[in-house]
Amino acid sequence: MKIIILFIFAISSLMSYGQQLDGYNCIFLNSHTNNQWGLDDRIKESFERKGFRVITSQSDISRDPQKRLATLELTYSFEIRYGGSPFNFKLTNMIGEKIFEAEGFGNTLSAKADANRACKRALGKMEKLPYTFDPSKTPKLPIPSSEKANWTEKQIINICYISLIFIFNIYKFKNSFTIMTS
Q1: What is the pTM of this model?
Q2: Pairing state of beta strands 71-78 and 26-29?
Q3: Can you point out the beta strands (E) in 1-52?
Q4: What is the C-alpha separation between 138 and 132, in angstroms, rounded?
Q5: In angstroms, rounded to a whole number, what is the distance separating the alpha carbons of residues 165 and 162?
Q6: Three-class secondary structure of residue 125 per DSSP
Q7: Does 38 score more than 60 pLDDT?
Q8: In 30-178, which ranges are E strands?
């Protein structure tokens, strides 16, 4: 019975991550300058096989807000350690929310083999998830409360004008007070 409950829990958590990825179609690979082990290429290939468009330059990120929200930033770390070298990667959306995180370990006699094995194991967790891009699941920009106001343009101009007069009077008062005391 415990095994069945554990299995159902594992499947439901995988399905929830898969549904979270469905709102995104682009990965910004925050690339490491020292790509000594070739991890950038392995990561890029893995996400492209999954159906994502992978970009490596920040200037390639779309300026269109809706397309920008469909982009995930991927950051990763790899550390060589005795007893097992961990590889971690994290997917974060452009709002700053963590969408997915995975970790893999490599434990061989070679640092390059450790890097490749750990990366393969971490990416394997992502590759098992079902994925199809669904634009309706892309997060929406939060609308500021000022955007929800029912003010007309003339009312906004009047408020700005009154604010400017108020700031000017404070500035004038502060300067006159400084002159009187010196």
Answers
A1: 0.62
A2: parallel
A3: 26-29
A4: 12
A5: 5
A6: helix
A7: yes
A8: 53-55, 71-78, 85-93, 98-106
> CB pairs under 8 A, 24+ apart, for 59-63?
60/28, 61/26, 61/28, 62/26
**Which carries the bigger pLDDT value, residue 12 or residue 165?**
165
pLDDT of 19 over the 60 cut: no
**Per-residue pLDDT at 1:** 58
Task: Give the model confidence (pLDDT) of 47-96 as tens digits.
Answer: 888 888 888 887 787 777 777 888 888 888 877 777 777 888 888 888 88
Q: Which residue has the tokens 């500021």?
A: 144
Residue pointed to by tokens 């995930």? 72
Q: Which of these, 47, 25, 11, lies nearest to 132 by C-alpha position?
A: 25
Amino acid at position 149, single letter: A
User: Tokens representing 154?
Assistant: 């003339």
E strands, the chain, in order: 26-29, 53-55, 71-78, 85-93, 98-106
Beta bridge partners of 145: none
